[in-house]
Amino acid sequence: MVTSTISSNVQPPAARKAFAEKGYAAASMDDLTAEVGLTRGALYHNFGNKRGLFAAVVEQIDTEMALRAQDMGADTKDLWQGLLAEGVAYIRMALDPEVQRIVLLEGPAVLGDPSQWPSQSSCLEVTQQRVRQLVAQGVMKPMDTEAAARLLSGAALNAALWIAASDNPKEVTPKAVEAFQLLASGFLKEPA
Fold first, then answer.
1. Which ranges constitute the DSSP H helices of 48-168?
2. pTM to 2 decimals?
3. 60-186 carries CATH number 1.10.357.10
4. Which residues form the HTH tetR-type domain (predicted)?
5. Radius of gyration of the chain (CA)
6. How far apart, in whole angstroms, are the C-alpha atoms of residue 87 and residue 99?
7. 170 burial class (0-12, 13-18, 19+ CB within 10 angstroms)?
8. How far is CA 94 from CA 29, 43, 146, 165, 185, in A?
9. What span, in angstroms and rounded, lies between the C-alpha atoms of 57 and 59?
10. What is the full per-residue pLDDT of the chain (192 aa) written as tens digits?
11. Can you tell me the distance from the alpha carbon of 127 to that of 78, in angstroms, rounded to the nearest whole number?
């Protein structure tokens, strides 16, 4: 299980709420400390700066997203369907306003390439493990498992980024899901 790096001395809901409601740029240090009775000094001590606190909130939400996606995958009949369900669940989470704003829109703008975030690296490891199992079972074509996992993870992430940035996320979501499923089916040894 992936754990968040948010310090137990700082209540993440206050920072999360401020970033979700006001956005990174508009959330003031006072917004981030007032609700939990912290001083700016305590925030700086725990996170270094506002960006450090934002990174911790992004990691927390992204980790929650991964765990929810894994739960969706666990409810399926087999490992392949589970892998697809996880990707689709992650994509559909782009409709959540908090996920859209904090993780998918402002996260890359403030923190850079999401594929380099620790939480995304953890997701990649889980995906690679599943791909390795599917290749070993003969469900997926023999291939480099890291390459396949990176492409599948990247496709789900980029689909979510597309949804979040679109003018009509609800209209884009089914298109993104269908394209992800078609792309993923290309990895199957036998056509679906």
1. 50-74, 79-92, 97-98, 107-111, 118-136, 145-165
2. 0.86
3. yes
4. 5-65
5. 18
6. 15
7. exposed
8. 27, 29, 25, 9, 22
9. 5
10. 233 344 444 445 778 888 999 999 998 877 777 666 667 777 777 788 889 889 989 999 988 998 899 898 888 889 999 999 999 999 999 999 999 999 999 999 999 998 888 888 888 898 999 999 999 999 999 999 999 999 999 999 999 999 999 999 999 999 999 999 999 999 999 865
11. 15
Copy the structure tokens of residue 117: 């975030």
For the chain, domain boundaries: 60-186
**Chain mean position to CA 81:** 19
Which residues, listed in sequence order, are joined to residue 188 by a DSSP beta bridge?
Answer: 140
Determine the Cα–Cα distance for residues 176 and 167; give it in Å rounded to an integer.
14
Cβ contact 173:92 at 8 Å: yes
| Dist. CA 20–CA 98, nearest whole Å | 5
Collect all residues with Cβ–Cβ distance below 8 Å to 150 and sequence separation of at least 6. Answer: 115, 124
Q: Is 172 helix (H, G, I), strand (E, B) or coil?
A: helix
